Prior knowledge:
The protein is an alpha/beta fold and 336 residues long. It has helices at 34-41, 47-58, 111-124, 194-205, 214-217, 220-229, 236-292, 297-304, 308-317, 324-335, and strands at 69-71, 89-93, 97-104, 139-145, 157-160, 175-181. Strand 2 and strand 3 (97-104) form a beta hairpin.
Amino acid sequence: MAGISVSISLVLPQDLPITIYPLPIMNFINPKTDFGFKKIFASPQHKEVLISFLNAMLYNAEPTIQDLEIIDPYAAPAITGLKDTYLDVKAKITGNTTVIIEMQVINVEAFTKRVIYNAAKTYATQLKPREGYSKLNPLIALTITDFVLFENTDKFLTHFVFKEVEENIEYYREIELFFLELPKFNKRLEEVEGLIQSWTYFIKNAPELEEIPEKFASVPEMQTAFNIANRSSLNLEELQALEKREMFFEDQRGAVIKGMQEGRQEGRQEGRQEGLIEGEIALIMRQIARRTGEIPATIQTRIQQLSSQQLDDLGEILLDFTSQQDLITWLESMSA
């Protein structure tokens, strides 16, 4: 029996409207908040994200780390009197090296000392009672700041180790410090190259993006990071926790900005007052020099130490001076 072939043609009316639906806009959480950073980089189910990030920042994007163990970042003090250490991410990587990561958005007082304290404490508390120093394993501290930390370099990623001052001889790499300063990274999306710049751009700009950039989607670990950061993937409890942290984040930033503005205003007022006093002193010096000749350095110093009211008095009475002895006599009367 011969087969039967059936063809069907579907003709649509020419005036039938065709609706094109745009791709949904994505909304990403802020990796600079503690909640966001831990959500993205400390997921045990997606260790490949942290591996890719650490390989980029610590090993120049070389695949040095093949696997890692994410551990509790909270380090309670083992010795009475030591402060608690709060970190964002802590992991054990290749070679039994411990990596601690801290994301800091506000430049708090003595922050650089806190970085060293956290690194030294995490390194020292590896030892259990009665264990020898040979049990200590290397430590790497990666600190990410949303403010400029080192004014004397334009590098956004810096690496510190112990070295001899004059001959640059390197000490054992038991403790290494890395710093990623986000404000120093100002490349536009089309200018971003390589894994180091890609992860830096992600941390700094993720909340402003509405989709996963094509150049990042080609990196599986980064695509995973974007998917984790997508707000639509969060449950209600996570969204509530995120909202609280973002509110706290903005409140703290606002408090710092207000404090800086008030400090600048006070500084301007003090600066204006100091400028007026300096101008008054310079004018008095010139008038005295014209009337009595060159003023010795010791006398200039005494004049500079006068109060604002005493300078006003000197400005009025110096017209009566006929010699520097008159000036000296008047200065002695002020200190009597």
